[in-house]
Amino acid sequence: MMKIFLPLRQHVGSPCRPLVEEGSKVKKGQLIAAVEGLGANIHSSVHGKVASVGENVIEIDAFEDQPDEFVKLSDSDDHMELIKEAGVVGAGGAGFPTHIKLQADLQDGGMLIANGAECEPILSHNTLLMEENPEIVVRGLKYAMEITKASQGIIAIKKINMDAAMSMAKACKDIKNINVKFLPNMYPAGDERVIVREMTGVELKPGQLPIEAKAVVINVETLKNIARAIDDRMPVMTKDITVAGRVGYAKTGHVFLDVPMGMPAGLYIEKCGGYVKPHGEIVLGGPFTGKKGSEDSPVTKTLGGILVAMPFPQHNKKVGIIACECGAQEERLKEIAMSMGAEVVAEKKCKRMTDDGRGRYRCDLPGTCPGQAETVLYLKKHGAQAIITGTCED
Length: 394
Description:
Residues 3-57 form the RnfC Barrel sandwich hybrid domain. This is Electron transfer protein PrdC. The chain is of the alpha/beta class. It has four domains: 2-62, CATH 2.40.50.100; 79-231, Rossmann fold; 238-308; 318-389. It is 24% helix and 25% strand. It is built from ten helices and 21 strands. Strands 13-12-16-14-15 form a five-stranded mixed beta sheet, with helices on both faces. Strands 1-7-6-3 form a four-stranded antiparallel beta sheet, with no helix packed on it. α4 (134-148) packs across α7.
């Protein structure tokens, strides 16, 4: 019997309130935790029995027999209400509740941008979705445009992903106000401010949201979930993921579409042929912004990648760290240094990082790294013999 773990917080906001008790049977698609305040509903991804209800997670024993049937959403004709009921969030990693984002008013020239950048290197599940099922992305985009009253829709794709671009262009060729436009082949092309800059020419300052440029940016998998909520009355129960790195399918990695949420990462490493030795840690997410995980780490609404890394090289040097919004932050860089056997003696942020006015440091020009000579000299002065950095280009 497979155990799945559904965290009560898979979104920006507060944890959801459990609606089930230990020992109760649940069906696929059943609402098991409700949003309170800012957040998104959580539904069971399997037919099973609740093993435990904790403060942060619901554990379910999945039955061996898993029929395709699921508990459908209400018969409401209110598209926004269906999106909220379905628990749709930013599937690209941000996890912001989509029903909140779609409250934006884009009439009189506003733009709805489908983010198909596949921002992080190695990840390829968004690209495969656009290649194999462009119609569902277009349907979701049309619904989002109707809700926000957007005048035009743009599908933003990197030039390198030409097959996906051609597939999307074919799917929207008869829709006058939806077009495909290209992003540069760079990281972090999927950053909202980079997308707005490239698609509209508006340079947003740190802390400014796309709405300042009369735009809303939504990930293509999120658009798929919008279409499913409205067309099929389907709640968010699955996630598209890429598994790659030191696994059996190492050369290309492997994409799994519609993985039931709560499934353990180790299962999909096994499905990729297991580990290639030697191997290091499991990274959840992309190589730049991912976090250390384990075989038991569950697939969530925001998980995009399960990457098996090389072992860390061992250096007992004194190191300095440079944190960047587009990559690893101080906590992650210190974790890497510790895994290498190094001692962190000094730390700095990339000089493009500025306070956005709310205590969060953001890059003032994402995608364009400055020279770090001054920062490196500072770290060297404080005893650093080597540098560990998370900057996007240098």
